[in-house]
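Hello,

Our lab assistant flagged a job as stuck in the queue for most of the afternoon. It eventually completed. Since we weren't sure the result was trustworthy after the delay, we are filing this so someone can double-check. Below is the sequence as submitted and the structure that was eventually returned. Let us know if re-running is recommended.
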Amino acid sequence: MPTIGIAWTPEMFKNKLVVRGGYRFSSFLEGTGANLRLPLNPPFFIESNVNYDASKAGDIRLGFADVIGAGDLTGPRTGSAPFYQARAWDLDLRPQFTNQYNVALEYQLGKATSVSAAYVGNKATHLIVPHEANQPLPGTGPFSTWTNLNDRRPLAKSLPNVGNIALTESSGTSNYNSLQMTARHRLGGGLELISAYTFSKTLTDNLGYYGCGNVNSDGAYWQNAYDRHANFGPACFDTPHNFTVGGLYSMPVGKGKKFGAGMGRAADLILGGWNINYFAGAHS
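-- returned structure --
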């Protein structure tokens, strides 16, 4: 996991300019969600789905017989038999690769004031993602003539009672690029100020196993399992503009301060040592 950093102060700028840069490569196997473990397949675990007629009442006397009574998963599918959710792992699953890099310039404007600008980015490949491995294929001709959705699944003949197959694989990609600018006034006269602005873009082709909360309303799978690059675009957590400003002001009251320098300990405990700070942020 190599990490390299440099810092350089050009003499021609009278030690007021600092150039910094860094690079890091990291790799680790991500978490994949407990719901996609192989033991959740039959015969250890059976998850099925039956669509009922909402206009008719169910019969409690049947119990779960009409749900788990489909029997052999490889046998012929009947109209009342449920479809099973299956889970699989890519045999070539591998840890993700992330390259991180940055270049920054910081310039001293005064004894306590500096400004900086940096490019910060990263690129990640082999991200762990869920993949619908049995997604129905499109039919031919007018849509009204297409056969049943489940009959168009690639494994419909070999596994007729299996619907969705959640495949764990490492094919996701993402990248992040940003301009990060900061202005800082270090503590002087009791006042410290800092403001920062980031202009960035995050692109990816998959939401990952955990999605983005309510953004994940369409599920974590690609819209088209056979063309994952069609999902490449801004990530659900992409924030192009992010601005923050904050500050701290130490009140000049108390022992050794401008006001009340000679006050006693009791008075100093009550009146001295106070400060005011604020923070505000805005983002797109």
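-- support follow-up --
The delay was a queue issue, not a problem with the job. The result is valid. The chain is about 5% helix and 45% strand. The mean pLDDT is 84.
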